[in-house]
Amino acid sequence: MMKHHAHPRRPSIAITPDATLATPESPFVKYELKAAYAEAVLRAGGLPFLVPYTDDRALMEQYLDRVSGLLITGGAFDIPPEAYGEPSKAGLGVLKQGRTNFELALLRIALQRKLPVLGICGGMQLLNVAFGGTLVQDIATELPAARPHEQQHDRTQPQHPIEVKDTSVLAECVGGKGQLMVNSTHHQAVKDVGPGLLVSASSPDGVVEAIESIAKDQFALGVQWHPELMLDTVPPNLGIYKLFVHRARDRRH
């Protein structure tokens, strides 16, 4: 395990976990979280906390009363199309309705509070939905000219470049505009960008790779890749977590 400096006092960051589906062989649902998420928050100066699912808004409010930032993680599942007003299409994958309901409600409360928010992979897609945007349900089916976005090799290594836009929050995170190498583990993507968001990075095939709030008083950033897996192999990725935690520190509880 890596050592982390305890001082100064760290801002608390809520992290949404995944949950296993119950099966006859394993009938008990388990919360799961890749250690890389918590490690990235720690390395960036934050204090990570996992938040269990609930459909009780009062509990969600109490979660957010106790933290200074919200991290929406990714996972091997899709967002139900009804969440953005579309029918299911060919290529749609596994759904986790309970997780999506919880994360979407929690995210909306956080945005109302102007709490700093970071969405990773599926978390970026959910951020777009929360702002009223839509999704490509399957890149291979709907965007046949796009390159494969589900890499098979080591995900601590990059898959393809993206172009980071100048003057964006993302550019502030990674040290400026221009090319950044990223990993790629998704089959869905942003289609119509939600009102109040702008695209701050795209891949050469046109797939949206990052979105962020246009509001100056709202840190809400979504990235389609997994920066927490490349903190050492592509070091600018740590800057995404650092700026997120820095903004959370400004709101610290």
Q: Return the CATH architecture.
A: 3-Layer(aba) Sandwich
Task: Give the number of DSSP strands.
Answer: 13
Structural class: alpha/beta
Order of helices and strands: EEEHEHEHEHEHEHEEEEEH
The low-confidence runs, each spanning 5 or more residues with pLDDT under 50, are none
Q: State the domain count.
A: 1
CATH topology: Rossmann fold
- Rounded average pLDDT: 94
> What about the largest sheet?
9 strands, mixed
What does this protein structure show overall?
With 253 residues, the protein is of the alpha/beta class. 26% of the residues lie in helices and 20% in strands. The protein has a single domain (12-250), classed as Class I glutamine amidotransferase (GATase) domain (Rossmann fold), CATH 3.40.50. The protein has helices at 35-43, 57-65, 97-112, 122-130, 139-142, 169-174, 238-250; strands spanning 12-15, 18-19, 31-32, 47-50, 69-72, 117-120, 135-136, 160-164, 178-182, 189-190, 197-202, 208-213, 220-223. It is globular. The two termini are 27 Å apart. The relative contact order is 0.18. The model has no long low-confidence stretch (mean pLDDT 94).
Spell out the blueprint of helices and strands:
Blueprint: E1 12-15, E2 18-19, E3 31-32, H1 35-43, E4 47-50, H2 57-65, E5 69-72, H3 97-112, E6 117-120, H4 122-130, E7 135-136, H5 139-142, E8 160-164, H6 169-174, E9 178-182, E10 189-190, E11 197-202, E12 208-213, E13 220-223, H7 238-250
Parallel strand pairs: 1-4, 1-5, 5-6, 6-13
Antiparallel strand pairs: 2-3, 7-10, 8-9, 8-11, 11-12, 12-13
